[in-house]
């Protein structure tokens, strides 16, 4: 299985001004543009760390998920949430020939932690031997910073601030306890080999 981010977060969607205010940095200097680029990189690093911890996409963007076998013949759990739309399901055979599956044959079941692609019939289309299925979808809380839950926004700002303030300390790679506490409810508890309890 493989998850690939197809589009990236636009720089204009990053809360650089809120981050500056949190850090209490001055503005109006000639090198503000340089500083904004640096602050944006710390925000991106914090977003990546929190998304990895929670398996939640923050700002909406496109993803592609590839699998060589369905975990359940009637449904497939997607590895990141929240999913807002499935754009395509494509079956690829061992020779690279592609078949785009009719969207009437599957549906999205939204879920806070484990959204699923489900068959509208009995089974999902079979994946051929040495073939794969490619699912294209959008995931994220929304396209703007204001669409994110407040606790996730705060956790990202706090973690980005730690990265900024501890940039000279290569050992400062642990999550602060307040960031851990803020993100705990977004974590997906997986037991029994990844299945639902």
Termini Cα gap: 22 Å
**Helix-strand category:** alpha+beta
N-to-C SSE series? EHHEEEEEEEHH
Low-confidence sequence ranges: none
Strand line-up across the major sheet: 1-2-8-4-5
Total count of helical runs of at least 4 residues: 4
Sum up the overall morphology in one term.
Answer: elongated
Strand content: 15-25%
**Number of extended strands:** 8
Mean pLDDT: 89
Characteristic terms for this protein:
197 residues; alpha+beta; 5-stranded antiparallel β-sheet; 4 helices; 8 strands
How is this structure best described in words?
- The mean pLDDT is 89.
- The chain has helices at residues 16-23, 32-54, 150-165, 177-183, and strands at residues 2-5, 61-67, 75-77, 83-92, 98-100, 106-109, 116-119, 132-139.
- Helix content is 27%, strand content 22%.
- Helix 2 (32-54) crosses helix 3 and helix 3 (150-165) runs antiparallel to helix 4 (177-183).
- With 197 residues, the chain is an alpha+beta fold.
- Strand 4 (83-92) and strand 5 (98-100) form a beta hairpin.
- It is built from four helices and eight strands.
- The strands form two sheets. A five-stranded antiparallel β-sheet has the order 1-2-8-4-5, with no helix packed on it.
């Amino acid at each position: 299985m493989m998850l690939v981010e197809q589009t990236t977060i636009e720089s204009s969607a990053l809360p650089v001004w809120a981050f500056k205010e949190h850090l209490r940095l001055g503005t109006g200097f000639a090198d503000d543009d340089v500083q904004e680029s640096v602050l944006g990189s710390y925000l991106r690093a914090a977003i990546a760390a929190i998304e990895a911890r929670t398996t939640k996409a923050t700002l909406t963007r496109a993803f592609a998920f590839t699998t060589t076998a369905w975990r359940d013949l009637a449904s497939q759990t997607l590895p990141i949430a929240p999913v807002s739309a499935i754009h395509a399901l494509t079956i690829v055979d061992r020779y690279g020939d592609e078949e785009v599956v009719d969207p009437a044959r599957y549906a999205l079941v939204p879920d806070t932690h484990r959204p699923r692609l489900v068959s509208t019939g009995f089974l999902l289309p079979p994946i051929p031997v040495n073939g794969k299925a490619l699912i294209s979808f959008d995931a994220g809380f929304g396209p703007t910073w204001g669409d994110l839950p407040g606790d996730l926004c705060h956790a990202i700002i706090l973690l980005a601030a730690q990265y900024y303030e501890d940039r000279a300390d290569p050992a400062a790679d642990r999550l602060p306890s307040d960031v851990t506490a803020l993100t705990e409810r977004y974590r997906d508890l997986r037991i029994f080999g990844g299945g639902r309890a």
